[in-house]
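A reminder from the course coordinator: this example appears on the midterm review sheet, so study it carefully.

Given structure:
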């Protein structure tokens, strides 16, 4: 067997071992892969013979990463983000880039190196943030939705920048740079429109036809990625294969089978991405560590402290409450995997030296580690610093949607009016109860306002929202959200006030049920368990007759 096979075996086995260690300490596996490369290259001083082949495999990983991003990106989501998220994203990107550029210039870097550093600092990691929010079950919280909205806009801008970079050459004067940029934007717009037409007219039908066989669907998806990447990277068009991967994903985003395709491709993407990040670690140069370490630490501090401060300031100016602003800022306190890709591409184009790639990689490692701990400790950090953020709050867009103007007593507080919450709300209103709904979904807030239902647009974990809803004076509080931390905060507030409010909570697992009961919840509902019991009761009674009655009533 050739040496290439043994080199890949070494990389995969060592990366697996490092990933297991990092999982034990609950750290991002991307760091494990970069460290694997450092152990093989700078520390191990191993010269791999199949370097070009490994580079190609790593490039395939980035291509599939962008394919997955395009596959999960739907333009209709931009319409639902709302002006607040769009303004917050634009403000964060603009201010972070300007300050990052200024800090880099002050440290003595050239204008082009400072530009690359500024861009690297601006973006945040979608992979890290979504994973941590999912682990905390806060992906559907108000700050979680805002964070993901900002990330969506960041990722879209990152793809545009990659598109511009992929068409550049190492030596271009100002006039040719402008001409090339305009031509690139026009070609890019044409490609997006063409792909958009295919995604609506032909591809969904073709994909649906192949979906009968999962193997054929997988092969068709990979073939489509490779084909479009080859066309886009041809001399006639002149983009990189990574951009072809993104457009290939965008073309399949409207298909019904996009989730199935993503599930099939994800493992293949992760395999090639592992090689990419290992190679990135191998290329780090520690001989000039003294010249790299200081700027990396300064820029990491900017990302970990300055970047959240920028987001908190913008969110507060837009009218969001201090807790939402603080948690959103903390969640964006790292740089993105796209930062590494752009640094890698800029180095290949001759725009930036190896030292800039090393600095960005070190900032990536530092911010990934510390931001993970910051996000996990966000609640404790807010308790510590939240009281100092009150001066930033102002009335604004986010606080104008509630319909509550009077103090209430002996009412029912319903947290979350979607799905289960909507059914509960209808039942309470039929019984003539006075209900106050708390929800952070603007569409639900508008719908409730139209129905003349008392509601507060906000996060129940926010102390002021709790106070405005009068949870201490309510006779019953029902929470249909699965955010354990938020539910625990509600119980603590009620118990501390020695209120007689009865508390009903929702949980998704038995550990959370135990935790909520221990805190003082009166009853905890597990939806799947409740649904199973309800169905079992129907079967015990008169299954067919009872089901027909329910069907007539609900249809």
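Designed residues:
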């Amino acid at each position: 067997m050739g040496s290439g096979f043994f080199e890949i075996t070494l990389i995969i086995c060592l990366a697996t071992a490092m990933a297991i260690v990092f999982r034990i300490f609950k750290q991002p596996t991307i760091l494990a892969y970069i460290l694997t490369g450092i152990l093989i290259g700078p520390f191990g001083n191993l010269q791999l013979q199949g370097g070009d082949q490994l580079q190609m495999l790593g490039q395939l990983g980035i291509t599939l990463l962008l394919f997955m991003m395009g596959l999960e990106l739907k333009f209709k989501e931009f319409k639902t983000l709302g002006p607040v998220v769009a303004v917050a994203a634009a403000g964060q990107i603009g201010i972070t880039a300007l300050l990052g550029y200024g800090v880099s210039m002050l440290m003595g870097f050239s204008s082009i190196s400072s530009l690359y550093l500024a861009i690297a600092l601006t973006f945040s990691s979608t992979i890290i943030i979504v994973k941590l929010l999912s682990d905390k079950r806060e992906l559907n919280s108000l700050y979680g939705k805002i964070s993901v909205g900002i990330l969506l806009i960041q990722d879209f801008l990152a793809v545009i920048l990659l598109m511009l970079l992929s068409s550049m050459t190492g030596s271009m004067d100002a006039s040719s740079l402008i001409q090339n940029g305009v031509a690139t934007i026009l070609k890019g717009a044409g490609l997006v429109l063409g792909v958009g037409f295919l995604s609506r007219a032909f591809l969904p039908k073709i994909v649906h036809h192949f979906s009968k066989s999962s193997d054929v669907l997988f092969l068709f998806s990979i073939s489509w990625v490779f084909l479009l990447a080859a066309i886009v990277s041809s001399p006639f068009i002149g983009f990189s294969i990574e951009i072809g991967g993104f457009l290939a994903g965008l073309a399949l985003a409207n298909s019904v089978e996009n989730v199935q395709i993503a599930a099939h491709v994800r493992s293949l993407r992760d395999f090639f991405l592992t090689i990419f990040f290992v190679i990135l670690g191998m290329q780090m140069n520690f001989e000039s560590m003294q010249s790299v370490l200081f700027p990396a630490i300064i820029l990491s501090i900017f990302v970990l402290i300055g970047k959240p401060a920028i987001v908190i300031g913008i969110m507060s100016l837009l009218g969001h409450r201090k807790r939402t602003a603080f948690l959103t800022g903390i969640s964006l306190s790292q740089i993105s995997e796209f930062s590494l890709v752009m640094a890698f591409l800029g180095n290949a184009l001759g725009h930036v030296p190896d030292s800039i790639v090393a600095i960005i990689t070190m900032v990536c490692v530092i911010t990934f580690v510390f931001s993970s701990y910051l996000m996990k400790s966000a609640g404790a950090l807010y308790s510590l610093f939240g009281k100092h953020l009150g001066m930033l709050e102002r009335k604004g867009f986010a606080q104008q949607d509630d319909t509550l103007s009077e103090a209430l007593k002996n009412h029912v507080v319903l947290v979350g009016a979607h799905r289960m919450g909507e059914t509960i709300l209808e039942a309470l209103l039929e019984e003539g109860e006075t209900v106050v709904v708390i929800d952070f979904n603007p569409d639900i807030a508008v719908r409730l306002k139209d129905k003349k239902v008392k509601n507060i647009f906000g996060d129940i974990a926010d102390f002021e929202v709790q106070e405005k809803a009068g949870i201490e004076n309510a006779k019953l509080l029902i929470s249909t959200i699965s955010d354990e931390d938020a539910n625990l905060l509600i119980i603590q507030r009620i118990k501390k006030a020695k209120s007689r409010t009865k508390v009903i909570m929702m949980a998704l697992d038995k550990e959370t049920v135990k935790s909520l009961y221990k805190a003082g919840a009166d009853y905890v509902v597990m939806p799947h368990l409740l649904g199973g019991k309800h169905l079992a009761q129907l079967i015990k009674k008169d299954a067919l007759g009872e089901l027909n009655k329910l069907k007539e009533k609900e249809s």
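Residues 76-106 form the longest helix (31 residues). Residues 396-402 have pLDDT under 50 and may be disordered.
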